[in-house]
């Protein structure tokens, strides 16, 4: 098993695009820290970024899927997104049971950071289309899930076996909370409305607002974040070893084109016949 | 029989999105609850009259529920943890003070009408925006929308189309594997059953993706791109446009003066236009044909025009240029007065109801 052989190196172009997307995404999530709007128009801030983020996503996903991925990567992306889109409604609404994050973590781990970003973004996009859930929150979810997959691809390559599963579990715990905090923070002024003591206050400083957010989050979302983290960990422990094996086997079998670019490769050589 | 190609019965999916987003934008210009309720009724009427029997068309009920939940959460928070403004006390809740480390939050106490009315007005507006998104989800066919994405996103849309068409097959694959396990006897129980079912299904899905890739490759899928790499100047321009748009969004929120706001909006528009141009240039490297593309007809323009009429009227009424209309768009909650309607608001409603006039009801089968 060679975990490093399967992740295709990213072109510098893609790295630059991903970096810009990460900056744009984090700016969009952290907007309550720097916004100077009055309280009533604070809800429109979310919509400003809901219009900017799709542009950023379009550029990055176009770049990642057209130049960094070949046909097999694209088909793998589509199939993994389909699995995520099927799994997502299974746990919807029940205390943060979201059985899709473990797939993005494992996909990013095996196929690298660029694939992880595309997988996270496309899984949530396909799932929203399938269930009719397209809205202002979708670009945020796509960016956050993309960053989650990207981070999984950037974990150290060396650990294998039990150590690898333990590392992925740790990442599942951290990323579940990070995902929840990012999403809650961006939609905090929007969800609770202005004027309460838990509300976003544009006149207070960033630290005071962070304090208010921490209280609000502790009251409303801690259970969801914990549920999401535990779901990811349980699924990684249960399914991780088997699924990593399946994905790595597929990536070895799919290595035919990159090994022999420009030559015609028959079905026998790929083992697909 | 006829020489003319048959006119498509359903409107273009992006036209539905344009109409719905414009009406959602129109609702953002004011907090008048009467207008919000009337617009909500108009959007609901359009959805009920024009939706099909497809699965995505059933989602609008979930958006109604979501709007109700947002309204309920906001009103409860305003009542329990309100900041204590307003003079008309409705009733008094039990009182609870938190220590200083918890920011000195005060829960309960007298509940006043003014902040509750303000919260309810704002939440109705937000609920209307959610309803507009629900309408777009219910009325626009996502598969047809994916067919008309820009060329640069062609591969991504292929991945999404694969996902949408593979998802039902996975359910079938799960049933097949479970049946095989039952036939073999000794089906695993408890935690082991999860991995005993999920892993074969995933292995099946991965094998399917390799077969699909071989099929796509054999039919020349990856040969549709012109072999030239995009120039580094184009890359830098695209990166710059992305950064400019992000910076514009940042500045629009962080700026305080009118001039800074205008500069921020200019950054946003220039950056967005740059990204659009860059994506077009990237898409031109692709040579694919489209099967049965959806034409954009004058009716689709009329549909979007209705949304633009609603948006433009609301923007005019909600601006400070017209003080009388501004007052009706933002009714006062402190002192609390009964909200009034302005005659020009009828134009907003007409714009929201344009789809009923220009589109036709779906056929009995629910499919074009």
TrEMBL record, chain A:
<feature type="transmembrane region" description="Helical">
    <location>
        <begin position="15"/>
        <end position="34"/>
    </location>
</feature>
<feature type="transmembrane region" description="Helical">
    <location>
        <begin position="100"/>
        <end position="122"/>
    </location>
</feature>
<feature type="transmembrane region" description="Helical">
    <location>
        <begin position="71"/>
        <end position="88"/>
    </location>
</feature>
<keyword id="KW-1133">Transmembrane helix</keyword>
<feature type="transmembrane region" description="Helical">
    <location>
        <begin position="168"/>
        <end position="190"/>
    </location>
</feature>
<feature type="transmembrane region" description="Helical">
    <location>
        <begin position="226"/>
        <end position="247"/>
    </location>
</feature>
<feature type="transmembrane region" description="Helical">
    <location>
        <begin position="134"/>
        <end position="156"/>
    </location>
</feature>
<keyword id="KW-0472">Membrane</keyword>
<dbReference type="InterPro" id="IPR017196">
    <property type="entry name" value="ECF_substrate-spec_UCP037395"/>
</dbReference>
<keyword id="KW-0812">Transmembrane</keyword>
<protein>
    <submittedName>
        <fullName>ECF transporter S component</fullName>
    </submittedName>
</protein>
<feature type="transmembrane region" description="Helical">
    <location>
        <begin position="46"/>
        <end position="65"/>
    </location>
</feature>
